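[agent] plan:
  1. take the single chain provided in the ticket
  2. run structure prediction with default settings
  3. attach structure tokens to the ticket
  4. add a short note for the reviewer (M.T.)
[agent] executing step 1
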Amino acid sequence: MTDNATQTSPFLVAALYHFVSLPRFESLQAPLQALCEENGVKGTLLLAHEGINGTIAGPDAGIHAVLSFLRTQPEFAALEHKESRASKMPFLRMKAKLKKEIVTMGVENIDPNKVVGTYIDPSNWNALISDPDTIVIDTRNDYETAIGTFRGAVDPKTKTFREFPDWVRNNPGLHDKPKIAMYCTGGIRCEKATAFMKEQGFDEVYHLKGGILKYLEEVPQEESLWDGACFVFDERVSVEHGLKEGEHKLCHACRNPITAEEVTSPYYEEGVSCSNCYHTRSEEDRLRYRQRQHQIALAKKRGQKHIGT
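[agent] step 2 finished; step 3 output follows
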């Protein structure tokens, strides 16, 4: 990243996860929360018996301090992370949270440390998904796949990751080809998804190492088989090739990404509705959203940030 890019996008964003046996996960919550707050770092870090997952943003020195602290913990010595930049702070607050799982699929005894698919580097991904013997599966949810996906990929159209196992069980055609290639945003969902596929009897199961984010960072756009933008779970909403910030906005009523064209829809009202959710919300809902949006506007006038529910 050039100095000029750092100046125009001053916030460093670090996405990370690590599966490891972590019985002492509760003891890390308070020191992590305090360290992030002391260093101007915001975002979410999830801690569970199975490891850590999250995305954080802040000044370069602050992010490096948090990552250094994590890697001094024996369980996280081999922790990897992915970096991008943001022109504005993409999170409202810092949350270090204790969870049952660091990514929830809802299937018991799935352990990526014991069984997992074969990692494929971004440089080799195009060849794999172009192979006619390969079925390519997008493990993300419908609002994510709506704005971008790999060419030829199967979209399960799931609302949540919990629906993915049943989708697999109900699609016997997935056995029609010998190879299964799977991908997600940063790689973590594929850790459990490929482990599940292996337990379901699929033999050749592969997943994109580092996820879409690593692919968009490393593969030149002229060689890319990715179409569209990649949804990210922060106020940037989406990123594109080179991890450049995308042009999508977020509907704060339904949390769906929306394009510049959708903003011109008669169903769009900032913070209240969009074409994705207008017909699924009541007038009472929209009244409540308008009141919240009014409070946000008042806080902005005062130079404050309104942190709603």
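[agent] step 4 note for reviewer: The longest strand covers residues 11-19.
[agent] ticket updated
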